[in-house]
Amino acid sequence: MTQVLVLLLAALIGVVAGSRAMTAPAVVAWGALLGWIDVGDKWSEWIAHPITVTVLTIFMLAELVTDQLPKTPSRKVPAQFIARVITGAFAGAVIGSAFFHTFSATGAGVIGAVLGTLGGAELRKRLAAANNGNDRPGAFTEDAIAVGGGFLVAFLVSLI
């Protein structure tokens, strides 16, 4: 049962990465720092270091700002898509490491990232259409879901 929950949470953090690539690593870093994700004496222990958390938080905040810019490319272009898959895999692996399920959780993170990338793009497109082409409300909604959902996933790891 534990492995199923770990894989589900790894997939969900992948969905977060599909929405906002740098949010997933940042929230798992915060989760590790806060003790929600047990990375002690594991390969992922470095993620809980305050410098790592700070750098990833800065990257996350920068992404939240740059996502609002009109010149930001689609999340579905190869470079953006690959970045989301990589960060989803990494964040999933960190969650999995807490339970010695790194490999399978990495795969779950990849699957979640693909689903989050494609689903997030569709959601954003529909929200823009519902707002007469105005993308900003959809972007802010997606930001809130990604950050809030990411922290929720990180917290839920502590309940397993």
Task: Please describe what this structure looks like.
- This protein has one domain (2-65, 76-157).
- The chain has six helices and no strands.
- The radius of gyration is 15 Å and the shape is globular.
- It has 160 residues and is an all-alpha fold.
- It starts with a helix and ends with a helix.
Summarize the structure.
The mean pLDDT is 95. The chain is built from six helices and no strands. With 160 residues, it is mainly α.
- The average pLDDT value, as a whole number, equals 95
- Compute the number of strand runs: 0
Write the H/E string, N to C. Answer: HHHHHH
Number of helices: 6
The total tally of domains equals: 1
> What separation lies between the terminal Cα atoms?
10 Å
Structural class: mainly alpha
List the helices and strands and how they pair.
Blueprint: H1 2-19, H2 23-33, H3 50-66, H4 78-97, H5 102-130, H6 136-157
Overview features:
mainly alpha
